[in-house]
Structures are given as C-alpha cells and as structure tokens.
Amino acid sequence: MRLYLNLFDHLNATTFSHQQQPGDFTSARAAGQLLILGFDGTKYTPAMGSWFKEFKPGGVILFARNMEEPGQIKRLVSDIVKLSEDVTGMIPFVCVDQEGGRVSRLPVKHYPEFPTARALAMDGSEERVRENYREIGNILHGLGFNVDFAPVADLDTNPGNPIIGDRSFGSDPDKVSRFVAASIRGLKDAGILSCAKHFPGHGDTSLDSHLDLPEDQRPAQRFYDAELAPFAAAAAEGVDFFMTAHVVYPAFDPRNPATLSEIIIQGIARDRIGYDGIIAGDDMDMKAIAGRWGDGQAARMALQAGVDMLLVCHETPRRRTVFNAVLEAVESGLVDGPKVHERLERIIKAKNKILSIGGNNA
Hints:
The chain is an alpha/beta fold. Helix content is 43%, strand content 12%. The strands form three sheets. Strands 6-5-4-3-12-11-8-7 form an eight-stranded parallel beta sheet. A two-stranded antiparallel sheet has the order 1-2. Helix 6 runs parallel beside helix 7.
C-alpha cells in the first residue's frame, strides 16, 4: 500500500511530544482516521482488536449499551485508548452523547440526572449552564472520555418536532447563542472537547431523521437571521466539532441533506461562518441517509461535500462498507490529496489539544 502523505513535515514537531509521531500516513491509515465507530459490548474482546486493526479508526463512540458502572467504563475506555495507541500510534477520540435530559448515556444508577437544555435556560443564567456542563465534563473526563457531542445548537421553533424539542435552549437566537457558548466553556473547563449540533439547524423539522429524511422549507434569509447564530457563537467560542443534520434545506440545496451538501458545508459552515474545526456527519446508520443512499455512495458524497469524519454508530457490515468507500476515495483521488491533508491536520490538532489538557488519563 502506497504512502499517502507526510503530515509531520507540515506540522510543528513539538506538538507530538506526548504521542507517537504520525509520520507517513498510508491511505488506509488516513481513511481510518476519518471514521468514528460504535460497537457492541462492555469490555475488550479479541473481536474488538480485530476490527480496530482493520479499520484503524480515528475515534469511537460509546452508548448506554456499552456502559454499566464506573469501574467497567473506565476499564473499557482505557483498553480502547491503549488499543488505539498500539494500532494507530495516536490517541482516539472517545466520544459520547451526554447532553442531559433524554439524551444521557451514562448509567443513571451511578450518575446524576442532568436537566434538559430547556430547563437550564429557564432562569436565564449563563453561569448555571456553564456549571452544568462543567459537571458533566468532569465526570466524562474522570472516565477517560475526551469528546462530548454537545451542546445542541438548534433553535426550538416547531412544537411538533419529534427529535429536538427540550434538547434545545429555546427559540430565541441570541439566548441560545449565549447558552451554547456557556456550555462550550463548561466542557472546556473540564478538559472535554465539544460539538455544536445539528448544523445548520434541525429545530423546525417535523420528522425524525433516525427514521426518515426531513425537509426544512424556510427561506435562506431565516437561517442567516436566526438559525446560524448559535453555530457562529460556537465557532467564536472555539467549539471543536460541528455535527451536520440529515435534513434537506431546499433554499440552499434542493437535492441533498446537509451531510451530503457541499453548498451547506463548504459554502455556509466554512465560507460564511468561517468555521475551521472538525465537521462530523451525523450517524450514517440513520434512515435519513441509509434509507436513500447506498452506504458507499453516501460516504463518498459526504467526503466530497466536505465532511471530515463519518460516524457509523452500530456494529454492522456498514462499518466495513463505509471504510472501504473512504479508502477508495483516498486512493483514487476522488477526494484530492490537499483536502485529505486538511482533514488530517484538523484531527491531529484536536488530538494534540486533548493531550495538552491531560486527556485520556482514566
């Protein structure tokens, strides 16, 4: 397998003092770093070692199915980190969706039941929001996590929305912007990377993208005036990830959901907002994508649109199909070398940030 690029020549060597230097990335190693994978089980197994060696993922995501009690979680995360360092020479992103309210993955028997974003926003206190996310972050950091896919930056504008609702801080763009920024500060206080989701705004839809492909028919100016404000605030606060929405926005792109739309990812996130962090696509297992595009086709389209990292959250054959599609895109030049290089630079920058703040010390 050919050597794909030499990142180390382009980056400050001192940033790698705490981890193995990435040196020459093969195409397979580059492709793996563009994936965040979910899995079954609550402990390390030889099967886990096998797929880690095959895919060499840039990160993993844990769900409630992977977590039983604090000791078990710490052991699992520690084993994953050691496995990643052995296989890839780099630490992994160890991710979780811990928002509070109904999107809470930590076992409630052992951890506080954190309030919803809506409840936090009721008293209007940015400090309360920051303290809440600092507490979440401290728990996650103690377990060895380094990324929380939070906060939700969507505006809650449709009472019939089945997927956002009380996960949002509200419908007022200024208020939501302030609370999103406070959430990011709280996670940052605890040494946890943060993620603003679901770009460019999932709050006005009436369908659940886990089950179907929603559309938001509102005019572009509505997004410029309102929906984009919390994401711009997140970018200004130094959020580490944007996560895209599996939603079609005909005012911008009449055919492709945001995850597959260069118009939205490059034209709005990168060019209009000026966001320069990692852009992750929401789970490729969701029916909004998996029900309409083939797995390989969707992976290629997302990369061409500008997504940096693809999530495949379940342990199914889709993981291999997506990996193979990413590898083929890298090898064939479908995603050209400079763009792959930019993705890897963003990923390595974020991983060095984790190391600089003492992450993965579970």
